Amino acid sequence: MKILVTGAAGFIGFHVCKSLLSHGHEVLGLDNINNYYDTSLKYARLGMLGVAEANASIFNKLSSSSNSHGFRFVRLDLSDKESLLALFQDEQFDVVCNLAAQAGVRYSLENPSAYIDSNIVGFLNILEGCRHNNVKHLVYASSSSVYGLNKKVPFETSDSVDHPISLYAASKKSNELMAHTYSHLYGFKTTGLRFFTVYGPWGRPDMAMFLFTKAILNNQPINVFNRGKMERDFTYIDDITEGVVRIVEDNYTKQYDSKPLYKVYNIGNNNSVKLIDFIEAIEQKLQVKAQKNMMGMQPGDVERTWANVDPLIKDYGYSPNTTIQEGVDAFIDWYREFYNV
Q1: Alpha-carbon distance 91 to 127, whole Å?
Q2: N or C: which end of the chain has fewer CB within 10 A?
Q3: In the chain, what are the domain boundaries?
Q4: Which residues contact 68 (CB under 8 A, 6 or more apart)?
Q5: Domain 2-338 carries which CATH code?
Q6: 295 CB contacts (<8 Å, ≥6 apart)?
Q7: Alpha-carbon gap, residue 253 to 266, rounded angstroms
Q8: 3-class SS at 306?
Q9: Per-residue pLDDT of the chain (341 residues; tens, 9 = 90+)
Q10: CA–CA gap between residue 167 and residue 145 (Å, rounded)
Q11: For this structure, is 186 an active site residue?
């Protein structure tokens, strides 16, 4: 298939591109390479995808680069409607995997307009591109943040998600509603994936795994929010990638046409891990005791997340099987090699 992956220079997008290429698909990666975090990491990911001399100097607006392995890259912002729709018309994608978004709960308190431009306007442009160019299936990133103040665990997609507590969460719930509308009106499949705390090699520098590892190795204290009384459904990147790719490739299966036009799934580890236990796994690998700066609850945060992924197991054979210690070890091995620590 010819597949568009947005957010290709991002953490999950990079891994999804890599997997799809290994399966023989033609992949066009799109990213605006914004400066939400260190862009050198984004360029390094593109380099791993075979984009020659991946650095800021060669990527101007709408410039592209390709290699012999079926991967092409275009630098483009989803809010640029005219250029995005032209790309859809020129390429005629079979499937679109929209992983581009302005991420981060806490950052949405500082720069709310970035979330509207990318997550609302940008997503609408993606839907319009699919609608007008016969895209068979749109797979898109939602977030566990949509569950907001829900107390019942594990979280199920049948739960009410009418109480988001961050603009990021509200933007992701909006994406689900927009996708439902377009599936209903225009008859193409949309599948939303509520990601639960993804971590692993090539991860984002603003995520806990990265922040904790960096601080401990530099003999600096780590900020432990809610005094460590947090629980997260930490999910290793390889498990996430395997699930995403199964859904993207679903067009090949006999069951594809019998599945509903619109569906939302949780995609997580099917388990809730205490933050303190997660920190202990890092300490175990580094053989260093962390200096903990115990802090209160942060605005927009929730105390606990836990995904019920039974529907994804039933429909796609999804099977997260990476233990926390295995995942933490793999991330730290990558971190030490990449940063020469």
Answers
A1: 15
A2: C
A3: 2-338
A4: 50
A5: 3.40.50.720
A6: 223, 224, 225, 226, 227
A7: 21
A8: coil
A9: 999 999 999 999 999 999 999 999 999 999 999 999 999 999 999 999 988 655 544 444 434 555 446 899 999 999 999 999 999 999 999 999 999 998 777 777 788 888 999 999 999 999 999 999 999 999 999 999 999 988 888 999 999 999 888 899 999 999 999 999 999 999 999 999 999 999 999 999 999 999 999 999 999 999 898 887 888 999 999 999 999 999 999 975 656 667 789 999 999 998 889 999 999 999 999 999 999 989 888 776 778 889 999 999 999 999 999 999 999 999 999 999 999 99
A10: 10
A11: no
Closest CA to 280 of 272, 290, 270: 290
The helix (H) or strand (E) run that includes residue 224 is strand 222-224
Q: Is 92 exposed, middle or buried (0-12, 13-18, 19+ CB in 10 A)?
A: exposed
CB count within 10 Å of CB 150 equals 17
Amino acid occupying residue 36: Y
Distance CA 321, CA 303 (A): 24
Question: What tokens does 1 get?
Answer: 């298939």
- Residue 132 main-chain phi, psi, to 5 deg: -90, 0
Q: Please give the model's pTM, rounded to 2 decimal places.
A: 0.92
Distance CA 120, CA 128 (A): 12
- Determine contact, residues 307/266, Cβ cutoff 8 Å: yes
Contact 293, 223 (CB under 8 A): yes
For the purposes of burial, counting CB atoms within 10 Å of the CB of 302, is it exposed (0-12), middle (13-18) or buried (19 or more)? Answer: buried
Q: Give the Cα separation of 166 and 175 in Å (integer).
A: 15
Quick one: tokens of 124? 């609408």
Q: Which of 36, 168, 236, 316 is catalytic?
A: 168
d(CA 106, CA 299): 7
Burial label, 112 (beta-carbon count in 10 A; 0-12, 13-18, 19+): middle
Q: How many CB atoms lie within 10 A of CB 4?
A: 25
Q: Give the 3-state secondary structure percentages of the chain, helix then strand then coil, rounded to 5.
A: 45, 20, 40
